[in-house]
RNA polymerase sigma factor 70 region 4 type 2 domain-containing protein (Sphingomonas tagetis), 69 residues
Amino acid sequence: MQQDEKAARVRAALDALPDRTRTVFRLHGVIGLEISDIARGLNIPAAEVEQHLADALVAIAHAVDDASR
């Protein structure tokens, strides 16, 4: 799979995420906020932040994996 195609699939997977999951992923993965800071800022438990991150990573992994088949 070409890098451009992989990047497009990752972007599409991120765009398809629920708003809260996408926000948490961007705050942590792009901006670099700590889980505790995200939890405090969004007024949700840290465990919920971790679940959103896990959901985002699974979606990205599936998008990339499906493309390589």
Q: What stands out?
A: The radius of gyration is 13 Å.
